[in-house]
Structure formats: C-alpha cells, structure tokens
Amino acid sequence: MISLISPSEVKQPTSIAIGSFDGLHAGHRKLIESVVKENDYTPTIASFWPHPREVLYKETRLRLDLPEEKLPILEDLGIEQLVLIPFDKNLSKLSAEKFIKNILINQLQAKSISVGANFRFGFKRSGDINTIKLATKDLDIKLKIISILEDKGGRISSSRIRDLLQKSDLKNAFKILNRPYSFKGKVVKGKGIGKSLGFPTANLEIDGRKFLPGEGVYAAWSTINNSSNKIASVMNLGSQPTIDPLLPSAVEVHLINKDINLYGLNLSVEPIEKLRSQIKFQNIDELSNQITKDRENALKILCKHNK
What we know:
single chain; Elongation Factor Tu (Ef-tu), domain 3; 2 domains; Rossmann-like_a/b/a_fold; FMN adenylyltransferase activity; FAD; nucleotidyltransferase; multifunctional enzyme
C-alpha cells in the first residue's frame, strides 16, 4: 500500500494534482485520471495538512476521509504517492508564484500539473489557473485544467456530500461518492447498559477529525479489524435520551445475532439507512421493545441491500 509521505520523500519527477480530495468523489476522480495518464512520471496527489482554514481561522474541518483512509482508494485509482504538505502560517504567506516555483517545480519536480477550473492557492488565495499558466508557459510542464463536474443535483462537491450525510441521505451520498461511506473506531468500555438490556453494544472511540452522519439509529454493516466479513448491525449515533440525556453524543454498535468480545479491537461501520430519530421513551421496557423492532427492521433492510 502507498504511504503518506512528506515533500522531501517524493519520488520524482511527478505528474501531480493538488487539493483536499475529501471524499474522492467523481470530480476528484476526473482529476486523478488525468494524473495517472502521464506514464512517464510518478502519479502523485498532494494535499495540505492540516486544512488551511484550521490554521488561518481556527475552524474545525471534519473530513469525509482521513489521510490514511484515502490510501487504499488512491492506490486502486493508480496513484503512487500521497504527499502531505505541512500547512502553517509561514506557508500561508507564500505568494502563488513562489508556491509554484518552490513547492511544485523545485521540491515536487512536477512535469504535469492537473487542477480543477476553480483552483485557488497562495497568499490570500491570490493564485488561480492563469497564475499557473504564466509561471509554466516557458517550461517543459503540462498543465491540465479539469472542468467542474455537475449532475442533476448541481455541482459535485465535498460540501454537498456532507450536507447529504448530515440529513442521513446515505443513498444519494453513495451515488456521488461512488462507494459506501464508512468510518471506524476502537472499541472501548462503556457503561454496559445495552448488555443489561440483552443488546450488547460496542462503544466506539472515533477520531475527532472524522465527519459523521446526522444523529439517529441506523441499519449498518460492521467489520472487525479490516476483515472482509460484514456483520449486520444496528448503530446508534447521538445521545441517550432515555438512559441519561446529559451523556455526550456517542457511537454505539450492536452486532445482530453475534456475541463477540470486541474490547480493544477496531470496528469499521458502514451505515446503510436511517431507521429512526432518537426518542425519549417512558421507561426501559419501552426502549427494549423498540430495540427489538430496530433489529428486525435493520435485518430486512440489510437483506435487501445485500441482494
């Protein structure tokens, strides 16, 4: 598998595209195709880490894909290296022209550069495709401008995928991603409430930089430690209004008809369809009855999905 590398470790010369590539959706894949077509150079993706807005404006930028999650997808698409360019205040002050010269040409040895038509970069986002054209016009460097991809719903973008996931519209998010949305976490000890009700749950510790769908109860597939064996599951994402409304939002996963000690293991979760919103029940018995119904509904949905 390709690894995450710094600019100093790059295999040169490169055919390169720069951007966040968050979600690796159809628009990103058009860019990647143009990179991979250049057989004479190492096909490379370069991304800033952390996100510039985190450094400049202290914004929290949750990712559809964390860098290590992108690796197997990029490898399947023909990319040989994912370069993380450390973004800090000093880099933010670099002019667009110096970024092209110092980073793209001198450090990354770019011989082919692919960018989206709306690509902006450099100090105060002053650089655009015309800046790259001017900087490379007398050099032996190809420049490929990839048009913005749209469908019936509008522009295909990472923000649109986030909006769909926030609304729990996993079906349409899947269409734009062209792959299932998933996340993973380490199983940590919880309060054991699910087990006392007869529905043991795995409590997941999720990387705080990962974007999660809207709160609710979902039918989901789970896999243990990157296994290919999918297990039918019910996932609860959010608070626990019946047990303790003051508890923080959490991710709990119940493996249907499985009794496995998961503590310390990694669980990958692929939510398929939202079953219901969170409800405050009158008592524990009502909650237990609803969980039974959730299991039955999840199995029906997952059986249909698996056909």
